[in-house]
């Protein structure tokens, strides 16, 4: 299936009731109710705060694929794309019939509903569910494990979001989408099932390179059996980590949403049409590893206090994501004041050797939080609405 064809499918099936970054059970329950006519939807568990965790099954094929999103409650882009995918697969007029005929998908849209409601990475017990794969101390972790054991997937899609700090390699290229075929042992051996995961990632990377060249990365594959992906890989189930990252000016993650959708369709189509054996894994090893080369804003050539005289330096600003009145707001915060020649800003401002002042006309300092600064008597916005 060609990329332009997938983009056309996205335009037709994008779920318009989901947008921006704050996605909770309240947002998806009406959509699930609409889907009940077509698929069986069940409550598969309850969260710490007794909120339901939903699961649904799509397709009737022999190849079983388990997909779960918002294990980290504040990583919602992959959830939006899941509903775009469901709309597509349930439309009998699309040419995706091969997917539902060859595959059965089990989808958990929000594994961590408490974290989603609070817009936090962790659950209500302040546990990172992606470090609970062995202890299974949390009800959400037990729910995923129960589904894994009962559904017996042939593939696992572990769906996440990543911060704006990541680059695809050591370059001025944002890691807009990243993947990982997790390790399954301390030696990070390229095992047969890792090769299968790598081969599928190559298919997605090939599609994305046509749209975002050099903006796909892979994560470090250091082994941690407490991580869910590493555990499932360790149990010989090909597992793929998806990370929805930053595209220029796309803080609502709507462009990235489409890219994740393209990744879903291209990978599922490939799995449906092929016996994936891992023979074509090697190009995965050429995908650049993620580096932390970005800040949201860098103010270059700023006059700042020095040990003796004032000197010229750079100022790094990172946005803090805040849940305010059921909406995610971005508050700029100064993280560093130093030479930042090896870093890049998603937005860069040249201070032209002038001082950078706060709202009180004093030199800014680390931890200063505001939506603007003053440079040469001009108020400069640090974020574009």
Automatic annotation (TrEMBL):
InterPro entries: Peptidase_M14. Its cofactor is Zn(2+). The active site is at 243 (proton donor/acceptor). GO terms for biological process: proteolysis. It holds the Pfam family Peptidase_M14. Residues 14-271 form the Peptidase M14 domain. This is Peptidase M14. It comes from Flavivirga rizhaonensis.
């Amino acid at each position: 299936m060609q990329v332009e064809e997938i983009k056309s499918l996205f335009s037709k099936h994008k779920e318009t009731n989901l947008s921006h970054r704050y996605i909770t059970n309240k947002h998806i329950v009406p959509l699930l109710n609409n889907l009940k006519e077509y698929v069986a939807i069940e409550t598969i568990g309850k969260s710490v705060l007794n909120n339901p965790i939903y699961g649904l099954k799509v397709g009737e094929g022999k190849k079983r694929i388990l997909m779960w999103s918002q294990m980290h409650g504040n990583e919602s882009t992959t959830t939006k794309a899941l509903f775009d995918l469901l709309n597509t697969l349930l439309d009998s007029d699309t040419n995706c019939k091969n997917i539902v005929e060859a595959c059965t998908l089990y989808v958990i849209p929000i594994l961590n509903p408490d974290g989603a409601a609070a817009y936090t990475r962790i659950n209500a017990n302040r546990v990172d569910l992606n470090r609970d794969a062995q202890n299974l101390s949390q009800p959400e972790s037990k729910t995923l494990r129960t589904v894994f054991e009962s559904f017996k997937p042939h593939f696992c899609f572990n769906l996440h979001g990543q911060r704006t700090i990541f680059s695809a390699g050591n370059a001025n290229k944002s890691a807009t989408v990243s993947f990982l075929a997790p390790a399954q042992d301390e030696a990070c051996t390229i095992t047969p099932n890792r090769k299968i995961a790598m081969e599928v990632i190559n298919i997605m990377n090939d599609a994305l390179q046509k749209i975002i060249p050099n903006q796909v990365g892979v994560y470090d594959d250091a082994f941690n059996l407490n991580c869910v992906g590493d555990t499932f890989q360790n149990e010989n189930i090909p597992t793929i980590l998806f990370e929805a990252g930053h595209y220029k000016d796309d803080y609502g993650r709507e462009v990235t949403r489409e890219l994740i959708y393209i990744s879903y369709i291209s990978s599922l189509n490939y799995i449906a049409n092929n016996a994936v054996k891992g023979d074509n894994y090697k190009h995965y090893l050429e995908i650049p590893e993620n580096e932390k080369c970005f800040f949201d804003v860098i103010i270059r050539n700023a006059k700042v206090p020095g040990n003796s005289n004032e000197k010229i330096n750079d100022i790094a600003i990172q946005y803090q994501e805040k849940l305010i009145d059921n909406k995610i707001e971005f508050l700029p915060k100064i993280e560093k004041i130093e030479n930042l020649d090896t870093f890049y800003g998603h937005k860069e401002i040249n201070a032209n050797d002038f001082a950078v002042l706060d709202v009180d006309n004093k030199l800014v300092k680390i931890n200063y939080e505001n939506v603007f600064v003053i440079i040469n008597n001009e108020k400069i916005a640090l974020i574009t609405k």
